[in-house]
Amino acid sequence: MVDYSVWDHIEVSDDEDETHPNIDTASLFRWRHQARVERMEQFQKEKEELDKGCRECKRKLAECQKKMKELEVADAESGRGELEKLQAEAQQLKNEERSWENKLEELRKKEKNMPWNVDTLSKDGFSKSVFNVKPEEKEETEEQKEKKHKTFVERYEKQIKHFGMLRRWDDSQKYLSDNTHLVCEETANYLVIWCIDLEVEEKHALMEQVAHQTIVMQFILEMAKSLKVDPRACFRQFFTKIK
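Predicted structure:
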């Protein structure tokens, strides 16, 4: 049985829901994306402020402890009062340090539970490659698309089926790395049709396996589309994040 639980934590797209015909759909999707980006920026700002506060507290504590050591070495009677004052300050700073660290830990847990999306999956950048920039494509006719799909399938059907049967993330990544030509719409379309055929044949378990790989390919293509890059440039980043 294929485990689909990993997909429960991913926001696949800003435009996956149907909307009312009177709503400006494109504007709504842009607003959704902008709202998500703003939430991410606010979260990052909060994280940076907590990290800064924690570092500053540690710096003050280190300075306080340094002064305490200097007074202890001097061992002067006149410095006893100052030493006690520094000890009290050091204890207070230690309490503050624990408080900062607890807040940071809570934020890390919150970050871990945040849904993934095309922005978070790609924020570390892509592997440098000749495929990084997606060239402008001319609109193809239905006839051209059909011919392109047929030619592709005739040439790579065996490889597409092999990818559809893979189960492990590492195996899928390696296979696509060795066969980057498979990272395209034609592969996704073939896998969808194969899923339908398998369901008609009542081969449900096999259909679920192929469906899993179909979702993998469709998500990579969605990510590339949103970021305006060639899908061959971002599939490695997808696997790095999802693993």
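Summary: The chain is about 70% helix and 0% strand.
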